[in-house]
Amino acid sequence: MVRLALLRLLQLLFTGWTIITLLFLLTRMLPDEQQLLARFADTLADATVSKQQIEAAQQAVRLRLGLAEPAFYLSYAPATDQQVLSARWHWNGSHNQYHQWLRTLLQGDLGRSYRTEEPVAELVGSALLVTVPLACLATLFITGLSVWLGLWLAPRPRVGWMLTGLYALDALPLFVVALLLLLLLANPDYLALFPTYGLGMEDEAGIGSILNQPAYVVLPLASLIVTGLAEPTLQLVASLRHEAQLDYILTARAKGLSQERALRRHALRNALLPTLTLFTELLPNLLAGAVVVELIFALPGLGRLLADAAAARDYPVLLGGVLVALVVRQLTLALADWLYQLADPRIRISSQ
Amino acid sequence: MRWPFPQNAVLGWGRRLAILWLTLLVLAASWSCFLPSQALAPDLLNSNEPPLTAGHWLGTDPNGQDVWTSLLYGGRTALLVSLPAAVLTTGLGTGIGLLAGYWGNKQLRFSLSYWVSIFCSIVSYALFTPQSNGITAAWWPFLLITLAVIAGKSLRHYSFFQHQVAVPLDRLVLAGISLLAALPRLLLVLAVASAFEPTLFSLVLLLTLTSWPQSARLVRAAVSRVQQLPYMEAAHSAGLSPWRIIRYHLLPNTWGPVLTTLPLSIAGLISLETTLSFLGVGLPPETPSWGRLLALSRLAPSSWWLLLFPGLCLLATTLSLRQILPISTQRNPA
To answer: What is the ipTM of this complex?
Structure first.
């Protein structure tokens, strides 16, 4: 058992390392360097600067962004004319961006933002204070509501319209729902029930929990819940209805249990099994949803950090945020395995 | 007691409406190719006008572009991105799933001599480059391939090199799938798309390379189910070639579930594309897209028409794509 858990941990670490390495190399090698330099350089006001001055300024920006060294252990060496065959790669030793980045990463340092020079770890940390409560609340609400709604809908054949409604909600992308809510309920022209933007705490320097600002969280939370609710509920209803036709429910009913009790005590446990993956995937998917929702409602959370970083090509911040999402995803995958084992001991964990 | 629950609450006219809407969408998208090139030119006198303005009967956005024309072009963009991406995704996923399911971890075997010779030539190709570029540089890969074949054949005379070593194809595919599953798709695409300025082609490629696991998983499961059946054994014992078995015996019996998920995958790709455009990391800013139109509604919060019309288009399209499935497979837990 311990061996299996260790193997699993190794596998998770390897997956995480591979994907973050790939993303690091993509973001260091693909972007056009001149564009990146122009984006993050202080604009040269004087038009009559010499070529050397421009070079020097660009080199300074490169040093500041940490782009001066080669990106990886190997760099591509153009073919020379002297030999018939020449080495395709040039070995850079440990003086490369990847080596430095990985070393500082292992010390818990995520680097500095290209734009603001703030340490990424701090940015991500303060963003998590907003996102974690939001995502956890949404997860709790979605789980609770979908189980409750599923139990309520399953024995009622006449509520097809509600299923169709859920179905329609499932079809809408999250950002459309969020925009709709924003337009309808937080608009001075129509219904200004809720504050529109941000968390309303510019004056207080502290990063108080968003739980102190319930009014600002209602709409983001609602849009996450509304779009996230449909899929687990529909799955649960379908699998509850499937279970309800099996013989053990007949037995339970013959013992004299009420329909509801038979569903809740007997069918639900079996029906939850196929939907377990959906529930454990909620949290990482909500992190992805936070990208959209926090951008729309201007919440200073991880999603907004990611969206802004992606739009502004601020790669250290982007990688830091992605790393957090990666860790959360791997943890929930492990949690899903464990829950499956718990729910149905017949399922064996395979170490592949 | 059997509860006579209806499996789904979808009516017959739903599918008819869906087909009607999708036909209209395709017509509108192809019609937008014939619009004059100035159709999207901003009308600076009438910017941010409500619907039913003269000349702009669905209104204009804050940049003065006509909403109706933007919708048409946006529909074309959505189709141009999602259709090729969905077809390529399904094709790639089906191919990978078929190969992984058919050969598994042990079936695809080569003798050790070929492993050694191919490995050596790949390594030397990766390490060394010929001096000139262009067509004359082709002697180097040709030489390596010839050497690999000759070395492989001649090494086979030694008994040590006659061992058969299998390609762990299934394990490789599973590793690829778990690698892509390590991040939610939106985050993965967002991170990669921010590393370069996507064009239509590269966006389709990116979406394909990140979305194939779903259909690969379906096909792999279907193949492993079919492989137990007697007719597969008959095909094997008749000595059919792997290609023939895969093409004529496996494929027709496994692509059912994949074909039924094709509309769903189109719908998913459309909403992914609009979300990317909304976030500003999708197609270049001058490409009209429903997502971009929706993003504009944040600039003008009181312009409900910027939200309503593209939102309705998105909703109708994704709903129609789900509706045209046969009813029994609609909520197929993938």
So the answer is: 0.84
